[in-house]
């Protein structure tokens, strides 16, 4: 086959065509662009890019091929009817060819009616760059014309970070080599983290390409790298998808909505992980390069199996033969195989109890947090104590001065957080029946004692890591239950205890006759029953309620229903 003649024939007859592969912002589930990948006719010897560009290089037809590819890509891209960007692959050395007609890409884009700001020129590192200065000038020229620039295949070859720092590209694409098996290779993770950190400093966006496995994708998410491309999402095709939902691929941690601030999820953060089969020298390298890294969770198939701590590993390696003895051992041999592990929905107070049971606890010690028994992240004792302090200060600021229980602001915040998390719960509204006649007859000081007594009973029977007790004001209280199945039982326990205690506040005469004499609303003296407790209990399905205002209205209505009954009563509204 005469490859030069065949190549010219393909170019002149415009038989070259592009396939498009989407580039996705997986955090926003939005396609930001499509990379155009050129092809020859199916079954043709020059069907695939390697053969095409090899023939072009051999016969000095690289410039002609490049321009034909760009025009074909732009024409077909406009047929997609998308607002995304077009990523065009360009051999950097073509830009330095004196015979290459400069300005052609801009002219094509203007003729076809596409804004050059929607075109990203991808310069691959796979080609040797003989004249970096001329290349830099060409890149700056593209940028001045309004095109965006990306360095493709970062880490694959010749120009390295020096070129990147000089031309300040808009995008950097990390080569597939560094993405492959990223989840099991800490050195690759370090490389990706370094690139991401450097990119922020020069305002470049990082794209991870060549993602093929769910584990690679999850590891990238843990590293906060969200611009992704690869077979895991979509293969190159003539008619690529316009939308590409990735929610079903996301790690469970990203599916969690609005973590409850009263649970350990509120202070959980992502972490670098190792597999139990990684070598100890890889862990040592991570600790050495990251001075603030305290510990590394050891995760196997999504499950936390241990924790490797800086001080323990450094101690092993500090001995005369430490490196020789431990460098090539698997981390499973040197890790703490019994670390503290808590579920993300565990209340903060409960975690505090678990942690502080250890007399030797270190304030910077980290522990593992899971979600449905899958590794989620880590939290530190310091963050835990800081959050407990914040919650207590907040509750104290808005506490009712009579009972010191949280007032309306934290009550409303707690309800809104449960609703945002789409978590079903129960709310009980407690109100003392005939409290005004008691107050008028026995005085405000005695009335305050009754209110404090009810508050103490609520704390005695209802206080737990899964409840929230609030004092609305006066003789009105609420208890919010995250475990709805215990709500009615606890409400009835409080009612029974209240009825036993309330009689101690009455005179012998009033107790014997079963009522008090007080002035009614009409100004006339009349008899009123002894105080009792009305409880309106609402089981709330968060899917049907939008705000704490609606919850308050439902609870108030349930309380009114309870007050219709004589004596103490708990009315249950199963919403």
Describe this structure in words.
The chain is α/β, with parallel strands linked by helices and 575 residues long. It contains 21 helices and 20 strands. It has an eight-stranded mixed β-barrel, surrounded by four helices. A five-stranded mixed β-sheet has the order 15-16-14-19-20, with helices on both faces. Helix 4 links the parallel strand 3 and strand 4. Helix 2 packs antiparallel against helix 3, helix 11 packs across helix 12 and helix 18 runs antiparallel to helix 19. The longest helix has 19 residues. The chain starts with a helix and ends with a strand.
Walk me through the topology.
Layout (H helix, E strand, L loop, with lengths): L2 H10 L4 E9 L4 E10 L9 H10 L3 H17 L6 E6 L13 H9 L6 E6 L7 H13 L3 E7 L5 H8 L3 E4 L1 H4 L6 H16 L3 E5 L4 H9 L4 E3 L22 H4 L24 H10 L5 E6 L2 E7 H9 L3 H5 L14 E3 L4 H9 L9 E6 L2 E7 H17 L10 H13 L4 E9 L1 H8 L1 H19 L4 E7 L2 E6 L5 H16 L5 H6 L1 E5 L5 E5 L2 E9 L7 H16 L5 E6 L1
Parallel strand pairs: 2-3, 3-4, 4-5, 5-6, 6-7, 7-8, 11-12, 19-20
Antiparallel strand pairs: 1-2, 1-8, 9-10, 12-13, 14-16, 14-19, 15-16, 17-18
Helix pairs in contact: 2-3, 3-4, 11-12, 14-15, 17-18, 18-19
């Amino acid at each position: 086959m005469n490859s030069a003649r065949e190549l010219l024939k393909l170019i002149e007859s415009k038989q070259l065509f592009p396939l498009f592969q989407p580039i996705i912002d997986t955090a926003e589930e939005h396609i930001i662009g499509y990379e155009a990948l050129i092809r020859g006719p199916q079954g043709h010897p020059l069907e695939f890019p390697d053969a095409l560009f090899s023939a072009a290089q051999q016969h000095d037809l690289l410039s002609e091929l490049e321009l034909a590819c760009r025009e074909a890509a732009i024409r077909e891209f406009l047929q997609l009817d998308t607002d995304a960007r077009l990523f065009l692959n360009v051999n950097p050395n073509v830009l330095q060819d004196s015979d290459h007609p400069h300005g052609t890409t801009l002219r094509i884009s203007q003729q076809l009616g596409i804004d050059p700001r929607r075109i990203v020129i991808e310069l691959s590192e796979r080609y040797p760059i003989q004249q970096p200065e001329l290349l830099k000038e060409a890149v700056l020229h593209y940028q001045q014309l309004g095109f965006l620039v990306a360095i493709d295949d970062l880490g694959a070859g010749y120009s390295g970070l020096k070129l990147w720092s000089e031309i300040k590209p808009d995008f950097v694409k990390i080569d597939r080599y560094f993405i492959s098996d990223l989840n099991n290779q800490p050195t690759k993770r370090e490389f990706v983290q370094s690139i991401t950190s450097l990119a922020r400093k020069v305002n470049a966006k990082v794209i991870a390409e060549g993602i093929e496995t769910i584990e690679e994708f999850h590891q990238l998410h843990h590293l906060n790298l969200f611009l992704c491309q690869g077979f895991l999402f979509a293969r190159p095709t003539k008619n690529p998808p316009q939308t590409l939902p990735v929610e079903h691929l996301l790690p469970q941690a990203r599916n969690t909505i609005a973590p409850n601030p009263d649970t350990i999820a509120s202070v959980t953060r992502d972490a670098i992980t190792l597999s139990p089969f990684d070598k100890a020298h890889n862990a040592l390298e991570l600790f050495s390069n990251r001075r603030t890294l305290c510990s590394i969770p050891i995760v196997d198939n999504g499950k936390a199996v241990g924790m490797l701590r800086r001080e323990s590993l450094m101690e092993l390696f500090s001995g005369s033969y430490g490196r020789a003895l431990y460098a090539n051992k698997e981390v499973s041999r040197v890790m703490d195989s019994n670390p503290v592990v808590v579920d993300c929905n565990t209340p903060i107070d409960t975690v505090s109890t678990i942690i502080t049971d250890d007399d030797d606890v270190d304030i910077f010690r980290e522990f593992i947090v899971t979600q449905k028994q899958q590794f989620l992240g880590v939290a530190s004792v310091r963050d835990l104590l800081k959050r407990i302090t914040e919650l207590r200060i907040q509750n104290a600021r808005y506490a009712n001065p009579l009972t010191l229980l949280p007032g309306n602001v934290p009550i409303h915040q707690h309800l809104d957080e449960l609703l945002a998390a789409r978590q079903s719960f129960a709310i009980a509204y407690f109100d003392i029946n005939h409290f005004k006649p008691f107050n008028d007859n026995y005085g405000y000081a005695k009335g305050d004692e009754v209110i404090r007594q009810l508050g103490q009973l609520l704390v005695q029977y209802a206080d737990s890591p899964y409840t929230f007790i609030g004092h609305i004001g006066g003789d009105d209280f609420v208890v919010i239950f995250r475990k709805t199945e215990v709500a009615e039982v606890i409400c009835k326990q409080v009612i029974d205890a209240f009825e036993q205690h309330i009689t101690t506040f009455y005179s012998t005469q009033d107790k014997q006759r079963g009522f008090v004499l007080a002035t009614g609303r009409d100004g006339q003296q009349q008899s009123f029953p002894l105080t009792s407790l009305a409880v309106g209990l609402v089981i709330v399905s968060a899917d049907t309620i939008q705000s704490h205002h609606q919850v308050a209205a439902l609870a108030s209505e349930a309380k009114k229903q309870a007050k219709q009954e004589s004596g103490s009563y708990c009315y249950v509204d199963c919403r």
